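Let us work through a complete example step by step.
Step 1: write down the sequence.
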Amino acid sequence: MTINIEEIEDYLDIRIPKSDKLTLESSRRITGPGLLWEKPGAILDVYVKDFKKEDVITIWLSEVSRVLRSIGWTNSQTKTRIFDTGVNLAISATIDLLYSAVFVIETSWQLTACRLLGEQPDDFEKLISDLKVVIAKEQNPPLLILQKEAESRNIDVLWDDDYVSLGHGKGSQRWRINEIPSPDYVDWKSLYNVPVALITGTNGKSTSVRLSSAIAAAAGFVSGSTSTDYVKLGGEILDYGDYSGPGGARMLLRDKRLEMAFLEVARGGILRRGLPLRQAAAALVTNVAADHLGEYGINTVEHLADAKFAVARTLSKDGILVLNADDTYVVSNGLRIEKKLCWYSLDKKNDEILNALKHGELCCWLEDGVINYFDGNDINLKMSVADIPITMNGAARFNIHNAMGAICLTKAMGISNEAIIDGLTHFRSTPEDNPGRCNEFLVKGARVFVDFAHNPHSINAITDMLSNLPSRKKFLLIGQAGDRSDQDIIDLTRGAIRFKPDQVVTMDMVAYLRGRELGEAAAIIKAECIKNGIDVNEIHHFPSPSEGAKFIIDQLEEGDLALLLALSERDKVFAMLKEAGE
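Step 2: predict the structure and record it as tokens.
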């Protein structure tokens, strides 16, 4: 039987009652470990007003149970979550029936909403009959047989609408979704999982991924990474774009040259689809701070932390979870995780470091400018931050954190001290090694930093570092995407001007207006700058990042300091700085 996914995904159009008291925000397939649990299936988010959320859950569970019984999904499980403005409900499903699972959960919501609103639902028997038709069209028994056999051998299974693959990288093989072989025809001896690490957090993800991948390369591995910028294998960019979700992971993990992988995992990918694998060797949570709140029922930093910690559900039996002990939200969530942990901190007297040392557990700390890694018995590795270029002799505290996280992560994956030191020593904050993350240029004797920081947490880290650097005159280039609230833009501006720039250049980002008028975000930035004491005559506006950057570059003199928060036109700004610095 040939499965036509394009036909299946739009096969049913479930009517959803309209009411401002019960608003369906999103329904979607979940392919792996996510916010609520580790199971594949479907999840639906509803905003609730004027009803008790507990009552909504009670009725919904009764209706979804009725639907599941009627279609014969007796093994399907449910999971609910109540948040401040609504509820989530998820159902589990086999990996071949995820579109059907969305239709099932939408059907259950129609029945629930109609009961709550006193409306007449569609004919139940017709709803069930339609569900059975689409289930019959989507089901793929060979996929389930192959999955069962692979999981019995602890081999990861990755699938999407087009392909299924077993193992990772050099140990992988893939087939078209309609051409799946019997397990008897699979060369199981050639299949295995390569070491894979997942990196998440609000800030520091991309740097940690690239730094860890550089360390793996120094150890002689064909190392690959995914990030919000690209998928990279060795020195080759496989594709540019935001690949911090499961699609990028599958692209990399199916490349048969790959020997070790580091995957950036962003909030959106976790919540929209879940995580793509279940046999990770290690995972890292860098930090958790307010960013992109208000979607999928994630309205607080505590909710965001819960979502980030989904990476713990991907770890293999012996996998290690690396955690930043200096972050309150990471600590509170980490202490609830029943996995092998490795804490790191800038302070040896941190409670989690002291506890790890006391009990002979993995940890890493900074002491007198030296990073120390403890393997449970002895200090196994020592390295001065002065020997790690991205720390800028310790001024970039956030990059000391990133270096420590990378040390712990690569130690968890069995990489030698020599390779770790080599990788850390040679990795630099350049557009080639780490594009858009604290990239420094020397222009006419002035130091110019380019960063894509886009939330208060990351901007504060950059400006704290710059505040410690000597300068004659300071310049700031700043703009923001239009989908930020006024308060978000105000908070971002306050963070950016913490290093007390003498001159501020605002800019428009035409590609990121996202509902705002041209110049609207810049006007909010300007008003906040004036409110904080910056002379209105020292605030200038340009219609693009490159034009704003050129205005600053033309004024630079020896001893000046500039921060360019260039969120777009990256390549053009880099080219201008390189040319001006020649």
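Step 3: interpret the result. Residues 149-185 form one domain.
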